[in-house]
Amino acid sequence: MADVEATKSLSGLLNGIAQRVYHNKEEITEEVLKEQLFPELSGEEFRALHDKMRGLLRSIATADMDHAQLEAFLTAQTKRQGGGGVSAEQAAALSRFWRSQRVRVRESLLAQSRWEPGLRGLSWRVDLQTAASRGDAAHGGPVALMELELGRAGQDSDFVCLELDESTVTQVLRKLSDIQRSMEGIVQRS
User: Fold this and answer.
1) Whole-angstrom distance, CA of residue 67 vs CA of residue 85
2) What is the arrangement of strands in the sheet containing 142-151, beginning at the earlier edge strand?
3) Where are the domains of the chain?
4) Helices then strands (H, E): number in the chain?
5) ∠ CA(51), CA(55), CA(59), 5° rounding?
6) For residue 184, what pLDDT is reported?
7) pTM of the prediction?
8) pLDDT by residue (tens digit) across 83-109?
9) Which helix (H) or strand (E) segment is 53 a member of?
10) CB atoms within 10 A of CB 50
11) Is there a contact between 95 and 70 (Cβ–Cβ < 8 Å)?
């Protein structure tokens, strides 16, 4: 019966760490986790367990380990000498947790890595402006009008309108080509 309770407590600890780190639940503190899950441990013992589990979970999540990678990682962790390794029970709890929570943790990490606000939409058109419409006798060329729809998750969009002349469009396209080449270089190296 004690093993079942220890397994439940360890699963609760992993869930609590994930809630705080990956889902921004500020109310789940180390103190709350210790009090509810491991009241029998000293503060130092709990902190060591908490930090070890948080570090292992961070390693697993950062690598977005699949099942085979996770099993190899946990096997290596159980074979480590000294206090840095994990017990078979801890490895089993980590494996169960990751199998059930991988998708949610990954989505949370992706959401945390996005810049806000994000681009939700883009529309454009090209207008030919006459000298009379601009009040500028020297300019009568085409202009690109772009409308960017920007927004944060769960909020209404904001709209930004840009007017670009031909040389500015050329500069923007050149920069976008540089970005594309850079991204293709990274993908090819991966």
Assistant:
1) 19
2) 118-128, 142-151, 158-165
3) 2-113, 118-189
4) 7, 3
5) 170
6) 92
7) 0.62
8) 668 999 999 999 999 999 999 999 998
9) helix 43-63
10) 19
11) yes
Residue type, 151: G
Q: From CA 17, how far away is CA 97, in angstroms rounded?
A: 11
Residue with the two structure tokens 């929570």: 101
Chain CA centroid to CA 147, Å: 28
- The pLDDT tens digits for 43-62 are 999 999 999 999 999 999 99
- CA 36 to CA 181: how far, in whole Å? 52
Q: What are phi and psi of 66, to 5 degrees?
A: -80, 180
Which amino acid does the sequence have at 172?
Answer: V
d(C-alpha 140, C-alpha 129), whole Å: 5
* Cβ-based neighbours of 165, under 8 Å, separated by 6 or more: 141, 142, 143, 144
Q: 165-172, long-range: CB within 8 Å, 24+ apart, which pairs?
A: 165/141, 166/141, 166/142, 169/144
The answer to whether the beta carbons of residues 148 and 119 sit under 8 Å apart is yes
Name the 3-class secondary structure at 163. strand
Q: Which of 66-75, 113-122, 127-136, 146-155 has the lowest mean pLDDT?
A: 127-136
Q: Hey, is 126 helix, strand or coil?
A: strand
State how far the Cα of 170 lies from the Cα of 174, in Å rounded to an integer. 6
